[in-house]
What does this fold into?
Amino acid sequence: MLNFAQRHRKCLVISENWLVGSRHSQNLWNLLDGMLSVLCNVLDLKLMRPTIVAVVGGVALCLQAHASLYTYDSGTLNTAIPDATVVDGNNVYHGINFSTVPAPSGIYGIISDVTVTLNISGGYNGDLYGYLILGNTPGTSPQITLLNRVGLTVDNTDGYGNTGFAITLSDAGTAGLHLYQEHGGELTGQLTGTWQPDSGDATFNSVFYGQNPNNTWTLFLEDESPGGQSTLISWSLDVTAVPEPVNVALAIFGVLFAGFGLGRRFCARSRQ
It folds into this structure.
């Protein structure tokens, strides 16, 4: 016969099928674990089955019903990224902003995932710098570097000479973008594939997780070396939002109490 701890862990393991794999899920998992620990003070073996059903059903319904995806697609822009100029022997940069218009609104929940696609032609990839920012206050608003003069190293002061990007940037990318030629990326022409942003240790998750997605998102691009002309053909943004863990946990907690009540009624009838 399963003891108290074994029954509790069995319940959690079954529920875990819906919870593993993301920072949001881990937060929710911790809340549920604590709540179930409290509930187990009043649960006995006969009530375990309806409790498991309540947990599994509650998690599935809450997570599947409320996750939402916001997609912004710029359409065809064909906008030149201003080339750097030389003034008194120094490079002068002329960046350009591309914002989501209109700004997203009415998205329920907090950010759990972000991906960006870039379609850039011409120029030299190693010249380009770019970032994505949520909000309108550089230095304060959440911001992540997307391009940082790819290929630039102590031994290669020009960066990569590819002409363009047709890529998706995601935390689940093949490898970091900065040295893509060392990870199977094209040596000439447009770079393709899915890559992690050129942001050092920062990730989309570490920068944007838990933020309110209902604000202006802006892509900033600039050319930091004279010579060659890059053009932004188009770009797009996908933002996944989920309910805050505490709200989901409270909903599931309510389902658990309902399951507990049904279990008590079932056991009372079985004793008659």
About this structure: Helices lie at 4-15, 23-39, 48-66, 204-208, 245-271. Confidence is low (pLDDT under 50) at residues 1-21.
